[in-house]
């Protein structure tokens, strides 16, 4: 599971990221409201934990903007505000759950698991981009109904590129999301992973699924069909 933590209390954010990692989850965090909105909008997460009192942009505004974008990202509000009016406002903005500080990490994890289970059962967790199909819950990939075997890091890289919806993602941005806790990563790791992905997704070189933009990064060239977005 890939969880986004938008929380401006640095120590609490570190504790949550570490606790989720202990359970085998991938977690990354930010304490900045606009950056949190960017991450939630541009990358694929299974759920988000969002504080209300954030610098740059309040948590409620982040939630409202995500829902205005038709994002189905499961969201738990995490805040020190315990008035019932605040809870109602958060839920009406589009949050799925609400947890008041102080709290036990086990309760947060239990609520996250419940949210992710519900999302998997009620929302589409499949992404189709031309001949490419990703099952975001099972973490499986197909090209033209041909299963593609990927390592965990190859899959995570592909998911980030697919979640970018055709945007250019720099090597640094991709590395930060694949290895959020590894400051000693090799600079060419992303290049190696992209090369592997290309060979596995496009063994005969006919598809060209990943474009390299020199000095800028990488972009997935495959796009959704208009019919899948309600057009046509």
Question: Would you write up a description of this structure?
Answer:
The chain is α/β, with parallel strands linked by helices. The chain has two domains: 2-122, Rossmann fold (3-Layer(aba) Sandwich), CATH 3.40.50; 126-229, Orthogonal Bundle (Arc Repressor Mutant, subunit A). Helix content is 41%, strand content 20%. Strand 8 (140-143) and strand 9 (146-148) form a beta hairpin. The chain is elongated, with a radius of gyration of 18 Å. Mean pLDDT is 84; it is low at 226-232.
Strand percentage: 15-25%
CATH class of the largest domain: Alpha Beta
Low-confidence stretches: 226-232
Q: In CATH terms, what is the fold-level topology of the largest domain?
A: Rossmann fold
**Order of the strands making up the biggest sheet:** 2-1-3-4-5
Strand tally: 11
Strand-pairing-aware structural class: alpha/beta
CATH homologous superfamily designation of the largest domain: Response regulator
- Mean pLDDT score: 84
Major sheet summary line: 5 strands, parallel
| Number of helices, counting only DSSP H or I runs of 4 residues or more | 8
Number of domains: 2
**Head-to-tail CA distance between termini:** 34 Å
If classified by CATH, what would the architecture of the largest domain be? 3-Layer(aba) Sandwich
Report the helical percentage: 40-55%
H and E string: EHEHEHEHEHEEEEHHHEE
